[in-house]
Structures are given as C-alpha cells and as structure tokens.
Amino acid sequence: MKYTVTFIPDQITTEVEAGKSLLHAANSAGIGIKSSCGSEGTCGRCKVKVIQGKYLYNEKFSSILPQKHRKAGFILACKAYVEDNLTVEIPLESRLDEHQVLLEDKQGILAEKNIPILNGYTLDPLCKKIQLTMDAPNLTEIISDASRLEAELSKQADIKKPVIGLPLLSQLAETLRKGDWQVTVTIAYNGRDYEIVRVEPGHDIKPCYGIAVDIGTTTVVASLVDMERGLSIDKLGTYNRQAKLGDDVVSRMIHCSSEQNGLEELQHLVIQTINDLISKLLARNNLSHNDIGIMVTSSNTTMTHLFLGLHPKYIRLEPYVPTATFTPVVKGKELGLNIHPEGLVYSFPAVASYVGGDIVSGVLFTNISKKEELTLFIDIGTNGEIVLGNQDWLISCACSAGPAFEGGGITYGTRAMKGAIERVEIDKDTFEVKVSTIDSAKATGICGSGLIDCIAKMHQVGIIDRTGAFQDTESRRVQITHDDKLFILVWKEESGIGKDIYISENDIKNLIRSKGAVFAGIQSLLKTLQLEIELIDKILIAGGFGNYLNISDAIRIGLLPDLPIEKYEFVGNTSLKGAELALISKEAWNHAEIIGKMMTYLELSVGNLFMDEFMQAIFLPHTDLKLFPSVELHANL
Amino acid sequence: MKYTVTFIPDQITTEVEAGKSLLHAANSAGIGIKSSCGSEGTCGRCKVKVIQGKYLYNEKFSSILPQKHRKAGFILACKAYVEDNLTVEIPLESRLDEHQVLLEDKQGILAEKNIPILNGYTLDPLCKKIQLTMDAPNLTEIISDASRLEAELSKQADIKKPVIGLPLLSQLAETLRKGDWQVTVTIAYNGRDYEIVRVEPGHDIKPCYGIAVDIGTTTVVASLVDMERGLSIDKLGTYNRQAKLGDDVVSRMIHCSSEQNGLEELQHLVIQTINDLISKLLARNNLSHNDIGIMVTSSNTTMTHLFLGLHPKYIRLEPYVPTATFTPVVKGKELGLNIHPEGLVYSFPAVASYVGGDIVSGVLFTNISKKEELTLFIDIGTNGEIVLGNQDWLISCACSAGPAFEGGGITYGTRAMKGAIERVEIDKDTFEVKVSTIDSAKATGICGSGLIDCIAKMHQVGIIDRTGAFQDTESRRVQITHDDKLFILVWKEESGIGKDIYISENDIKNLIRSKGAVFAGIQSLLKTLQLEIELIDKILIAGGFGNYLNISDAIRIGLLPDLPIEKYEFVGNTSLKGAELALISKEAWNHAEIIGKMMTYLELSVGNLFMDEFMQAIFLPHTDLKLFPSVELHANL
Description:
CATH topology of the largest domain in chain A: Nucleotidyltransferase, domain 5
Largest sheet of chain A: 6 strands, mixed
Shape of chain A: globular
Strand content of chain A: 25-35%
Helix content of chain A: 25-40%
Structural class of chain A: alpha+beta
CATH class of the largest domain in chain A: Alpha Beta
Oligomer: homodimer
C-alpha cells in the first residue's frame, strides 16, 4: 500500500510505502532533514508537523521534544510512520540546507551557487559501518578470530584482505565475545586498501560520520558529514590559532625557521584549532571522538605542511619546492586529532608550493576537469590562485595578490563578518555615500566585496583617476592628512566603532596592485597557451568574498575579465565542499589525485611575462582598454 | 683476462676476472666468508692467506688485522685483488658455516643436515638498499621532494608508489639536500607494498641487514643476515626471560589471565630478550639499530601472541581459538624493538593455537610443500607438533608430549648443553654403563637424545620391561628408595655435580607417556587420512635434540615410526632457518602464507582416535608389535 506525502512549504510530493517514517519520506523526496541519532529518536533534531492525514506515532519518544514544541504539534519525523496521504510541514530549523540564499542575479550581484555535495559523483564513502553476524567457533571449526572476521567481511560486504592493525587486534577477542559474535565494523579506505578502524560489540545503528576540514591560513571550518546519507549535518568555523604567530603563510614559514620548535608550535596550534571545532561539533550532536573514523582536510601547501609537521622551509626559498604534494594518509593518533585514534586522515594533494590542496579540492568539486567547456577558476585570498582548463588539460598559477581583498593592509579593511561594508553607492553629483553592511549592522569596516565596490564607484564618479590618485573634488568626505588622502564612507556618529570609517589613497593603491596581480595572472595563463579571453566559457569565483560579489564592479576595476555576467558563478568555499565530497565518494577522491597529477603549474617568477602583464594591469581598469570594452570611463579621467 | 682461484682446504676452484677481490671470488665459489663492513676493509673479519700466486693488495687496510696475523701471512679478502692463478686458504674463523658437523650416518646416528638458506628459492630480499642520484630542482622543474624521490625509485629500481610515512617525510627535505641529491634508500616490502624505511644522505655502501629470530618458549635465537648476499653472518642465542614467570606456554597464559599487566610484563620480557640479542649482534658487527630495516620472527602461536601483545586467553580455553593466525606486519617502534623505528617486523603465520609459525617456518624451509614425496615433519619440544603432507596437501596436529624430551619433569633431565649425557651404552651382562657427554665434559644431566638412548638400552638389556617397570636385576647401579627405583648412570665421583646421576622408574614412565603421545599423534594423522606408515617417503626431525639423535634408539622405544633409517633427516632449528629464508626471499615469504592457509589442523581432543592410539603407544615400543617389525625384543620381556 502506497501513500503520497507532500512537504510544505516546498510543495514537493513523494510516494512511499505505508509504514515508512516521515524522515525516510523526506529523504526520498530529496529534502535533507537534520538527524544525528540514526533514527533512534534521541537527538530531537528531525521535528516536523503533520498538517493533514493520519500517521502512526511512537509516543515513547515524544518527550524528547520540549513541551512548547509538542504543544505546537511538532513530532519526530523518524518516529512517525505513514498511514495515509499526508501533508507535512518541515520547519526551517529542521532543514539541512545551509544555503538559504539561492542564485539571484540583479545588477551583476552574484550570490553563492548552491551545488549539492556529490555534484555528479557516486555515493561511496571512504568510511563505512558494516554489521556482521557470525557463527561462534567450535572444536571442529576453529579458525582464528581475525580470520573469522575477515571471512565474514568478505562474504557479507565484499571487503577482501582488510588491513587490521595491532591496537584493534589486541581488543578483538573480547569484542567478538562481548557482542556474542555480532559486531559493527567501521572500515575506511586508506588509498590502497580497506582498513578496519573500529570493531564495536553488537549492532550499532548510529550512522558512520566523517569530518571535512578546510584549513585556511586565517579561518578553519569543519563540517560533520553523515557518510551514509552523504550530507553535511553540522558546520562550524573559527580563526586559525596559528594567526598569533603570523598573519600569512610567509610569516609562519619564517617562524618555523627562526624559532626553535617553531614548527611544532605551529602544528600544535592548528591541531588545537581543529580539535576545538571537532569537540564542539561532537558535543552538540551527541557523538564521541570514536564515532569519527575518517577526516579529509583541504588547505594550501604551507598549511598542509604545518598540519602534518613537515618543515615548510623550502617552500619559501627559490625554487620553491615543497617536501610533498601527495602526502600520506595518516592515523588520527599520529597527529593527536580528536577522532578515533585509528581513524584515517587524508590531506588533499597539492600541485605546487603555491597552488595547494584547497585549489585541487575546488577544481574537484566544481567538476572543471570533467567538462568540455573552458573554465577559469579564481580563488582570491592572500594569494590569488588561478586555474584554467577543462577535461583535457589544467594549468594553474599563483600571484601574490596580498591580503587586501581579505581586508589586510587596508586601514579599515576587515573580513566578511557582521557589520562589514559589502556594498557602496556614491552619488555622482554630491559624492554622498550609502553603504550596505552584512546583517545590516552598524558599519565596523570594509570587506573584500565592499572594497571592490568602493573603488569602482569612486572611479566612476571621478573621485580617483585611473591610477587611483585622488582628484580635486568638492566633498566634505575627502580629507587630506600630511601623508595620505582619505574618503570618508561612514561618519563616526553612524559607525559601529566610534570613529570615521574611510578608504585612503594608499589603501586604493594597495588594492590596485592586488587586482593587477590577479588580472596579470589570468593574462599570463592565457598568453602561455595563446588563448583569447573570449574563449573562456565559464568563470568560477571561489573564496572569501562573503556571500556576495559585485561582478560588474570587479570588472569595472579590472580585477576580473570583461566577459558577460552570465559566464560568472560564485561558488563559495569550494575547499571545504571538495573535502566533503571526497569523504563520501571514493571515486571523487581518486579523481582528486588525478587532478593533482594532471594540473600544470606555471611559475610566474620565471621570465618577464607576468611582470609585463602586471605593469599594464595597475590601472583602472587596465592600460589596454580594448580588454575592457564594456567599461565606460568617466569623461574626465 | 680470467684466472682460477682454488680455495683450501675445500679444494674448490672458481674462475674470476682479473681485479676482482678474493671475497668476491669466495662468494662466487659458494664459500661464505664473514664480512660485515660491506667490503670497506674495516671489520677485519674476512682474513685469508694466499698460498700461491700473485695478487694486488691495498696495504692501507692491512693495519686492521692484528700484527701476529699479518706476520702469519693473513690479509683481508675484500682488499686483495686477483692478478694470477691463486691458491687461497680460508681459516676456520673466517668461515660463515656454523655447522661444521657434516652429514654422517654411523650406527643410526643422524647429524643435522646442512641445508643452504635459500634452499631453491630466489634471492629477493624483503628489504633492500638502493642508491639514487637525482637532478636538483630548478624553477622550471619544481616537483616536490617526495615526488622526485618516487620518480627516481620507479626509474632506477622499478619500485612504484612506495609507502612513505610522515616520520620519513619530515626529514626528507634536509636529507636530500645534505646528500646533494644523492641518497641511499632502504625499502622494505610490507606484504602489500614497498615502504621506504630510511633515506640516508650520500651513497652508503654498507650492505642491507635483517634480523631473523626464533622465539622459543625456552630459548630465543637471533641471526644477523646480510640481505644482499643472502647469508647469516652472525648468530646468538639466549634464554627467554619470560621463563621466570612460567616454564611453558600454559603457565605463561595463566600468568596473563591471573596477573594485572601480566600480558604487558611477558611482552616486555620477550622484547627485552630479543633486544639484548640484537644489541650484542650489532655491537660485535659494528652496526647501529638503524641499519636493521627488517626482522622476521618465528614462534609458536602463544609466543607470537605475547610478542605482539595479544592476549592468549582463548588459546587455552576450549575450543582453543587464537586471536590471529595471520598477524600484521608492524613497525619496530610499535613494539619497542632495537631496530630502525620504521623498520618492519614480520611474524610467521600460524595454523592454529598449537601449530604455530615455527612449524610453518619449518615446513617452508624444508620444502615439504613443494615436493611430491610424502613427508612427515616432527618437531618435538614441550608440544610435539607433527605435519604430514606434500605439494598437494598438508595436515598437522599437536600432542602434549610434555617437556620430558627437553629434560623437564625428569630428575636429572637437562637441555642439550655442555656436560649433558647424549649417548648411553649398557653392557648386557654386567649392566655397567658408558656415557658420552656434549663437549666430553663431566656429566651434569641427561638431554633428550641421551634419555631416548637410555630407555632403549635399559629395555634392550632387560632392566625395564615393556611398560617401563624395573625388573629384578643384579646390579649395584639399581637402587630402591621408599617410592621409586633408580638406575645410576654416573657415579658421584665422576659426575660434574658431585652427586650420582640416575634415571628413575617415574622418569621412565614420564618419558614413555611423552613418546606415546608423539607416536599416537603420528598414527592419528595417518588414520585420519587412511594412509599406511610405509607410504611415508621422508621423515624430518626438527627441534631441540642437540646435534645428534639416535634414530635407531628412537624407533626402538616407539617414539618414531619403524622405517628405514635413510628416510630420516635431522634438520635442526628450522624455525630460525625459515625466518632467515623469508628475510631474503619475498617468494619464500609469500609461500609461507600459502602454507599457513593450505595446512589443515587436526584437533586431537575431538573424538577418541588419539586417546585410543595413545593407550596403545605407552608400551615399549607399542602394543601392536607389527608396527615395529625391526625391533627385536629381549627374550624375557
């Protein structure tokens, strides 16, 4: 007997067998519902409300929800079973989708594209749980405990010759007997073989979990992934504690070389940062570190070295050689990570010292290397990493953009956080300013997208010329100090920091150098391959611009190529998403290794190509205006 | 230009190119010469004397030999080069062969057979050194250090995708640069892949070494193996320190279960025992623990469990299930072994709780599973382990023989050591006794072969009957105490312990039970397969009988089947030899795993077969005299 279940407000209808849970129904309708107890009715995260129709409910579990929710009609989706055609409301807080902001395109503003994690790959997690039931030994059938386990794994799960380490073996005899020859085995792929990470007595029905981590130079974000459903069920970010020993990769590399135990110190700090995130994710999902059998990290090459305890010395010295681009899969205990001690830790392969695993992860996730169309992938952080290619070839480079777009070296620069100015409007006659801030809070600084907007608009209305120099303008917002010129964006009275928030001429020159470096990098790749800009089919913008990037403005200042806006996509933190993808798809991980191998690296410091391009690019938008046909210049400048 | 080199006293002649060293010549003649410095001229162990002919000698190294040796004409074989037809004397102390006793067959006494380690397998060591020279990186060719190393290993040694662990990786950058892009890489096979164990700067010409260890319940023997030449270059044995917590495997298993930390204690003691042996071997061969990249151990199943820290609890309890018969390859550091921390440690696979890796090692080394002929393999220690089979099938069993043949439970029983009585003659008329002891020292006790001899002769001359009971005989050597009867073998005045050395009626009954258990085990295997004793083509006797075993006597008491003496071979400590073989031949190791899998185990406690056979076997030689047609019985008994 089948019934239809309609979910609102989505208005998605699905057909399910009588007796299936509402959680099951939502999953088969493609709607992600939060759940971390494996349908045991204990986490209370899958609350829904049945608007119409009959259902069977296991009242035993109803007390898990607070009374006020119960009174409002909420029930646990995992303990309610279909008995009728139903209409079910899924409240916002029970939903998995964290990207409420969908694609919208108004005035060239691009929101982050919501791409599902698997993105075309097969769900085949790097780590799985397998429930085994075996016969007890007797005098006529006395194979060893380990051989018995192996035989059942082969028979019931087609896993042949798994790696079994000593720590696991030393507990095996007691575990098998404690579970009366029923056990739950967690196996993880180590890049060569399947490895038994954990054996628990009895049949544990909790799903298998993994952790994906994007280890950024500045911020670290961890995602808790339900390996069976292939969904991120929780996420948390924080600042990289290494920052106290240096803001960027170069200062951290110097710390490693100049301080005794500098490397150990930095490794310890990043492990601490990650462990804190994991602890919080575990606590709020009622999990233990032993439940995490696998972790995939994605980071730039220097961060990967520091994470693994490899000295980054030669990354900084010409010819910029990392110790390893393909690093070994290690065990949690080797690094002191807060996961199962025998759990496996993958690090994304890198291409070179300055094109790291975070970029490979991004290329993997965005499927560039699986499509015919020529794609330009740009990740703008302290370094601008640029990849150009398609299914047949990939070329990459890194240009020292400096930290300007992340707010570094800019007087009131800030990261994309609450209160950061992300858009700026300037009246062309009065030069009066209107700013939009993240979460509409009182302005505290200017983030990357705000800075781009700001320069574009200041140039458009004639406050600065093509070199970024301030022009003589009649505006109370322009102020001149003994060594700089300032343009006030937010008056002290309206700002959230009790001071005027301005952008200075020096700030602008810094930004122009940064944007020039990125554009020169793009041009260098194209010229190396003798390709014209127009051949690019798609441009993907990854990284730290917050949720929005004003593409028109970015083109107007000459940061991005002057191509139709519909060719652009803002793909967000693809470093993290690629790590999530690798966790749940062995096929995807294998492809990451192929990407790492197939991608060519163009070292920009060889020859004059990059420097020539850079010198042309430190104008608004560029020396060669033919490259920016759509940009109308202010008549006077 | 080629010359002939004749080695004396062997009178073996070989032909070598001019300019080759005498060490090289000896090796190609199949004569093992001691050498542990890799022909660097520093260890001084390869001393030889040229009797005739011209040679070139690098005098620089002559001072390594003591003056008196130099005066006697000795030179280093590794630094003397062929320029003429030569006659070269190799003194005993420079020879590798430790079995000076060659096969001889007089009066049924069998000496240990001297079988070369490889015994037909291909020399392909589990661990090798590879010298690599690579190009330094430059800006146009900037692959990572690890990838550069991998590429050269693939190109120069055809090693693909080796495992490289973090500890090695963390030192790699500095090592490569210190060696100016010349390095010596030690790689070891881990059962699945090759693994890089060590990278040294520069080109190290020392050979690669491995350690083979026979971990016996009572004694532990370690052998230092030159992996390139495939030769054991030094050997050392000692008592297993675990003995202080229990004499046999059962008492040690009980210690594990009854004492808190009992397992840790026993593991620690055996590791200490092995480490001491290794330290001494390293010191006297001028090597460091880092020079040892691999170790293969062979032991019974309980000893393997204790060595690896696996609890043996269920080995002792019905249905006698070990945690593992195939144990993982682990790293030296995991067990705290005195080898390179990243060096690999193999343990021989076992068949069952009471047929262990030592037996698999013995079957491997003696090639039973590669031959058509039906072979019976018997290792008599505390347990008698018996294997029957050929290339098509192998069946094994274990019978609790008790420690009698190792001297346990026998009043003056002792191991095969200096002063142990190993042969006994009794005058049939006077009952006067003549004993032979090991090293002809004053008698201190009776070892296994001596005990067998003793019972056989006592029965032959009529001192005991077929049940082992003392007969009324007129002899001053027979004495009667309140609860036992004694037969004095050595008078106090002639013994090395200041007391009469005797064998008592109880001793003899113990021995008869032991020999009965072994023979009943053999019969059980044969009857299970419905085979007649006569079908056995060869009988191999392994284990602790010292250097000699009197086969005729062993048949006469009914310990061994009554088959022609030429079918017997005494093969010595095959557990150690199999471990040495596995070290130097990957093919052999792989075959050991096949043996472990193909061998069937017959549990003698199931059914009545064994007990029926045992009851028939506790007579001299047996209840069924048709089984011992060659044994003439004393008329009166």
